[in-house]
Design a protein that fits this description.
By secondary structure, the chain is α/β, with parallel strands linked by helices. It is built from four helices and six strands. 27% of the residues lie in helices and 12% in strands.
Length: 143
Amino acid sequence: MLYQLTGDRRRLAEDMGFAPVEVRRAPPDAPRAIVICAGVSGMLAAIRLAEAGIEHVVLEKNVDVGGTWLENSYPGAGVDTPSHLYSYSFAPRDWTTHFGKRDEVWEYLRAVADRHDLRERRSPQWAAPNEVYFSPVAEGPAT
């Protein structure tokens, strides 16, 4: 988290745009939301919805968060852009290499999920043969 960084690291994080922002809260009658999948973008959506106080559920077909970084475990899998671009602004990481490998990216995403209790908002109700999600938020299946 940014507030844990000090000195040069904090200045670098702020220069890169990793600055704290004020979280706006949704009104009590805000609509509920469904986040499809728990990859990098879905995780971010769920975290921001929670911060805003919007009730939501994350629908994910896999057994854990991470999307591509969970599914692709072939030898040598890794990012093709600088690793720091895979850091959320609210959770910068000191990556071990400039182009991170799959296991480190997935470890990072799992740590973020743990820190924000994402697994508690995940609904594993996925009927793969019919490609239908069943959501406790919506009335009936969402296709």
